[in-house]
Specification:
- By secondary structure, the protein is α/β, with parallel strands linked by helices.
- 34% of the residues lie in helices and 19% in strands.
- The radius of gyration is 22 Å and the shape is globular.
């Protein structure tokens, strides 16, 4: 009977997907990440909306996925709580400091079930995933269940589309030695996983925008535009905010041994005597552009960041993430 209600609700959710979500799925490596989850597993994902769970449940209809959910439905919408529990929801009662959900998760994993945890611990309305709380990692270590990371661009809307990237499974036992389960070791492993997830998120955004136009022209830039200059064999890109502020990842030419970071320079400093080109997007593509205020806020938040990679996290990748939703 429980399966009946679970799949009845799942079938109804496909209508929501068709109208408001329209999921597009990518894989980190399709040869390694099976399109099905076999056996026990802990699925983790970044989180912004109650719809995030539907996206994942719809991806794996062959498995009944148990999901951890906040106590909002227990204290604010009590009439919904019984239905949530009946369809596999595990409510975290934070107000009562009741963590029974953790033991229930272990029991389910011991029975070869799948558990979905939004490990940011709350809705995140920021621009990028935030660091995860480590309960998912402790569960993985104690149960031996692999961790399946899923990153979403959380791009819901009637004229939008949600893109997700499913990463290769992570074996937590390779990150934390059974002989050293200290707080420091757990924290270090959690940070390592977070950096991997952030890299996957950047990869998702890169794939999402790889088909956009790459037309540039010599014209006056406006706040929020992506601009570029020729740097010999390649181009160097930045985000134009004003003549006094261009945010860039690195420089057109980085000297040997120089740490590449996101930094702010003047337009003259960015161009270094050259004329900048401004990216031109089609009318259809401009629906992906953030508001100028959002672009300014996101770009400035990134100043000082490192992690440059010429293939996966370069100056153009950075500019796209900042300017495009």
């Amino acid at each position: 009977m429980r399966a009946f209600w679970y799949y009845l609700g799942l079938m109804g959710s496909y209508v929501v997907n068709a109208l408001y979500i329209r999921t597009k799925i990518y894989y980190e490596d399709e040869s390694k990440q099976n399109k099905r989850i076999k056996g026990k597993a802990i699925v983790i994902c970044n989180h912004k909306s109650p719809l995030d769970g539907l996206v994942i449940l719809q991806k794996y209809p062959q498995r009944m996925i148990n999901y951890v959910i906040a106590d909002f439905f227990q204290h604010k919408l009590r009439f919904v709580a019984p239905l949530i529990r009946y369809t596999g929801g595990l409510i975290v009662d934070r107000e009562a400091f009741n963590w029974d959900f953790y033991e229930k998760c272990k029991q389910l994993l011991n029975k070869e079930k799948v558990v979905l945890i939004f490990s940011e611990g709350r809705f995140n309305f920021g621009y990028e995933p935030i660091r995860f709380v480590n309960s998912y990692l402790m569960l993985a270590l104690q149960s031996g269940a692999p961790i399946v990371p899923i990153l979403s661009d959380l791009n819901y809307g009637w004229t939008k589309r949600v893109h997700i990237l499913i990463g290769n499974s992570i074996d937590a036992s390779t990150l934390v030695s059974p002989e050293d389960m200290s707080k420091e070791a757990i924290k270090k492993a959690n940070e390592e996983i977070y950096q991997k997830l952030l890299s996957l998120y950047y990869q998702l955004k890169k794939r999402k925008y790889e088909k956009l136009s790459s037309t540039y022209s010599f014209s006056s830039p406006k706040p929020g535009d992506v601009i570029r200059i020729s740097a010999g064999t390649h181009y160097h890109y930045g985000v134009y905010l004003s003549h006094e502020e261009v945010i860039q990842f690195g420089h057109a030419v980085n000297t040997c041994g120089e740490t590449v970071v996101v930094n702010a320079v003047t337009l003259d400093g960015f161009c270094n005597g050259k004329l900048p080109e401004v990216r031109e997007l089609t009318r259809w593509e401009r629906r992906y552009v953030r508001d100028v205020e959002d672009i300014q806020r996101y770009a400035r938040q990134c100043i000082g960041r490192q992690g440059y990679n010429p293939l996966t996290n370069n100056c153009l990748d950075f500019a796209n993430r900042v300017v495009l939703k």
